[in-house]
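hey all, quick one before standup. I had two proteins in the batch that finished overnight and I want to keep them in one place so we stop losing track of which output belongs to which input. First protein below, input sequence then structure tokens straight from the run.
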Amino acid sequence: MRHRAALATLTVDNRTDRRLQIAFRPAASPGGAVVVGEVDPAATATMAPIPAGEPLILVAVDPEGRRFDLAPRSFDLDATWTWVIPADAAFQPNSGERSP
């Protein structure tokens, strides 16, 4: 018997002036980040599917390695969610954590 994976669709609306790499990491465990795509400046792009039903931290990384993390959130099965990254998003230096 085949089971469908529990996945959701993530679209990123990048309102910054830099190309961003988008990743997620589990909020509940120390797992590494999984890169799901990239989005150009002032553009919108659909990423590879992300896991549904478990808390994830979404991460946007700019070309200099600075990060903009979204607070943990869960996504519904088969949901489509748009992450709007504002033009004035406060990117922070990498805190020593492995960057995606």
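OK second protein, same deal, sequence then tokens:
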Amino acid sequence: MNTFDKIYSVVKQIPKGKVASYGTVAAMAGNPRWSRVVGYALHVNPEPGKIPCHRVVTRNGEVSKAFAFGGENMQRLLLAEEGIEFLDDGRVDMKKYAWLGFTAQE
């Protein structure tokens, strides 16, 4: 399984109504130093309907300014549609919505 496939495998496991940070996805995919690689992989997501890249945010709960599928407003909308609420400063409350999931299998 290549690096992007490992990342996609993890992202597919993030439940509706939860988010994971780039670092969490990277660690679960096999290397905690792959945070930027996670961003690259999600930017070229081959199956946006099946791989819920909108559920990946920064460790501080910020949405991506470069969300590839409609910009940050679309990412916020998709998360809100899943019941995720935003703090007054526009970030996702990571204490409430962070998913710490499973470890990706090879």
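Flagging for whoever picks this up: The chain has a mean pLDDT of 91. The chain has five helices and two strands.
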